[in-house]
Design brief:
- This protein is mainly β.
- It has one domain.
- A 7-stranded mixed β-sheet has the order 39-38-3-2-1-41-42, with no helix packed on it.
- The relative contact order is 0.16.
């Protein structure tokens, strides 16, 4: 296989790999009945000069610990109230201002009971009803339209596109059959794609293609299908590695900010059976090598071999990030610029960096690299790592990353120790990790953890750094493309308050696996009810 020549990877459309910067970015509901931190949405409100503020909008209608989910398109927030299962829908405009809120009494059988995930660049949500059946839900409606009901109640979600979803049916021999469904036009009609040892499924931009990775190691293969007619377009040996093996390489849990397919939809990053990182040119059905496992480094890369690539994917601006191992324990991270065929190692020579998240953009409007960096994790702690083999400041340990269309990396931190008067308190904070700067001819990270916590406003008043005390059950949605919505955890325990693998119940082979917390169900006899619209809110930054 020949080394890769220069190619144009393209630029991602809004809300397909990273979220739009402006508007709602996260919603949190916690069990804190004694304070005003029960349920709220965080949004970036920007003025005409591009100056932005993080605004905290309270959602008093939702009882503590309610489920919440932002649509990926960013115009709706759906909350299922913890008491009785009533659905509240909040609508926002492009600037993030709330324009209405509606209370909907849902159908007791087909109404949404469990929030699952949002489609990419869409206002549609995948949910489960009170019987655990998959459905597609359009905010403000009373019912969820069943997804492929004839395939049975044990249907599992495999991947989401912009209007298509992939679902899987599990068989007794351990294999599974993957179907695709157009949930916008005909959600009840599934189309069979393939049967086998399917490991992960990924939709290409615009849902033009769907890519299946089957098997592992030397037995791995990749198949590319046309979504519209399910025609096999390409097949070759290798496997997708844009998500972690600990998550069973689920495509809906790709590393924050990454996608297996390039923004143009013409290239696919994959691992060869020998462990090399390769790129498949989907139009010509040909492959090239980015980094081999049995040759010296390229460009600025150190002269060391890689025994295996563990992770690789394209950022929203087309930059390719990867992680590889040397021997059985050492791991390293690098970035590959496909426009200039340049490999750049990230972080120090000290072994052990794993790729945790990438910024929304490391290139300018012309596709030229400005600063190459990412967030790595080592020994449980996250830190900035950059070109020039430089390590920056530690970011934190318990983080839920929010890839936004921004040059920085955003995250929800759920273990911020507040110490004072001989007491400490777990808290939630929002961090914005800024990109490094070149000073005196060297790349330097100068933003410490305290500088990363973002000030916020409420009702137009500056409230200072956002540090919200945590209590009881928490539920979080970031509306990030491909991220699960039903992220819940216990802030009083020893594990992270917001889990990062909440899709387990959608992928586990046991159809009886329940969510981390049983969702509330509407009482029988609530009736159709009605709605309670409001006049929206007025934001001082956007009149």
């Amino acid at each position: 296989m020949v080394p890769c020549g220069a190619f144009e990877p393209g630029d991602a459309a809004d809300n397909t790999v990273v979220r739009a910067f402006e508007g709602p970015i996260a919603a949190i509901a916690m069990k804190d009945p004694d304070s005003d931190n029960g349920a709220f949405v965080l949004r970036n409100l920007c003025d005409d000069d591009g100056e932005c503020q993080l605004d905290k909008l309270m959602l008093p209608e939702l009882s503590p610990g309610s489920q919440v989910m932002l649509t990926t398109g960013g115009h709706f927030l759906v909350g299922i109230d913890q008491r009785g299962g009533t659905v509240w829908t909040y609508e926002f405009d492009d600037a993030g201002r709330r324009v209405s809120k509606n209370k909907t009494y849902v159908d007791p059988t087909q109404g949404p009971a469990q929030l699952v995930i949002g489609l990419r660049d869409s206002e549609l949500l995948v949910v489960r009803d009170r019987e655990g059946r998959l459905g597609v839900y359009r905010p403000t409606k009373q019912v969820a339209s069943p997804i492929a009901p004839d395939l049975g109640d044990s249907l599992r979600l495999a991947a989401v596109g912009e209007r298509w979803v992939a679902v899987r049916v599990l068989h007794a021999d351990g294999t599974q059959t993957v179907y695709v469904v157009d949930v916008e036009a005909d959600p009840e009609r599934p189309y069979r794609v393939a049967t086998g040892d399917i490991q992960s499924v990924v939709f290409g931009p615009g849902d033009a293609t769907v890519v299946l990775s089957a098997g592992t190691g030397v037995d791995a293969s990749v198949m590319v299908f046309d979504v519209g007619n399910r025609e096999l377009l390409d097949a070759f040996t290798g496997e997708l590695i844009s998500s972690r093996e600990r998550n069973d390489r689920r495509a809906v849990e790709e590393v924050p900010g990454l996608h297996a397919i390039s923004p143009s939809g013409e290239q696919l990053a994959y691992r060869t059976p020998s462990g090399s990182l390769a790129v498949r040119q989907l139009l010509t059905q040909s492959s090239c090598i980015v980094r081999n496992t049995n040759r010296l480094g390229t460009g600025a890369e150190p002269s060391r071999n890689a025994s295996n690539h563990a992770l690789a994917g394209f950022g929203a601006d087309g930059m390719l990030f990867a992680e590889y191992t040397v021997g059985s324990t050492d791991s390293f991270v690098y970035a590959y610029d496909p426009r200039h065929q340049q490999i750049t190692p990230l972080g120090s020579e000290e072994a052990g960096w794993h790729l945790a998240a990438v910024p929304g953009r490391v290139t300018d409007v012309f596709g030229e690299v400005t600063r190459l960096w990412a967030v790595g994790v080592r020994h449980g702690s996250h830190a900035t790592i950059g070109e020039g083999r430089i390590d920056g400041h530690t970011v934190g340990r318990e983080l839920t990353f929010m890839p936004l269309d921004d040059e920085a990396v955003w995250a929800i931190d759920t273990k911020d120790e507040l110490v004072g008067d001989r007491r400490s308190e777990r808290a939630l904070s929002v961090r914005r990790v800024a990109p490094p700067e070149w000073k005196n001819g060297a790349l330097r990270f100068e933003q410490g953890p305290d500088d990363q916590v973002i000030p916020h406003v409420r009702d137009g008043d500056n409230q200072g750094p956002l540090r919200v005390p945590l209590s009881g059950r928490l539920c979080l949605t970031t509306g990030v493309p491909g991220a699960w919505a039903y992220r819940c955890g216990d802030s009083t325990g020893t594990r992270a308050a917001f889990t990062t693998d909440s899709g387990t119940q959608e992928q586990n082979n046991d159809p009886n696996v329940r969510p981390e917390f049983d969702p509330p169900f509407p009482d029988q006899g609530e009736g159709d009810g009605g709605t309670e619209p409001d006049s929206g809110d007025g934001d001082p930054t956007r009149d």
